[in-house]
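Recall that a protein's primary structure is simply its ordered list of amino acids. Everything else, from secondary elements to tertiary packing, is in principle encoded there. The following example makes that idea concrete.
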Amino acid sequence: MSPICELTPDYILSKEEHLQLREALSTVLANPYRQYESFCYQIIELLRNDKIPQNLIKSLTECSLKNKKEDPFIFVRNLPIDENVPVFDNENPVISKYELKKTFVGEGCLYLIGHLLNQVPIGYINVNGGDVFQDIYPQQKLKDTQSQKALGPIYFHKDLANHFVRPDYVNMISMRSNNENEIFTTFVKNIDVLSSFSEEEIEGFEKPNFYTPFDDLTTKAGSYNVGEADHHPIISDGYDIRYFENRTVGLDDKSNQLVEKMKSRLHEMKKRVQMIDGDFIGVANNFSVHGKEVGNLTQPDLAWNRWTMKTVNVTSIEPHRKNMLSGSNYVVQG
């Protein structure tokens, strides 16, 4: 049975383009977890030296011009990933990755695509110590949380929605999948949801009568105390949805009823993708919500090894510079 895919790809690399890109990225020697700026420089050099497939560059340049409110997703298939991807230790998969992963093809794809889309990747000191390249990979002690280290579902959300540095984009590449297990990445456009509510409901959503705690990874795995989250509206600026399924609550009965309506509407409108190895999906974080849905697991042990690599990116670093770690151009203090 073919994996479920309810999004239309923007671009699918040919076999020749796949091999060309793999060969180019395999020449990058800088370790992005130790020499991040050198790694970025080496990726840009591949572009300058015409080592990247031209049709991929053209397609991504066109994608960068999309109306993100109307079309907040970018979907590319058949990208190269690292060969012989190691299985990480679920007790501490980040440390295990540092020890076992010696090539950086997946990271190269993420940085290259982000660059071609005019995005700037950032890290957070409370998430993997500031690594730009993060992993959606189960960790034993965080398996029941609502974080990238969860084993089970991750409910509808936008990344770091109430953080003082909210990313503009979330980019993901599938590094290891098993499509006999029903594990879906799910997506909903904000505009589809907003157009389904009445004016009275929208007015209710626009009041600051809701509360969402900071995400689990920021508060449970980080060293920097980000304090307490503020009360907030769910809908603002006519397009933005600030909501985390099963975490956002209303401060009164009427607001709680709206929270439940939002949950139902998101599930009615969602698109699902069973990502396969080499799939890239980029999400405009301010114009959509996404999640991870878990259905029937025919091989539950393999769910522990499912791996998607991600970056969170901004349009420009300048508005966030005051929140950067001292001496860093890309790591947020928080």
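The domain at 11-332 is CATH 3.60.130.10 (Double-stranded beta-helix). The mean pLDDT is 95.
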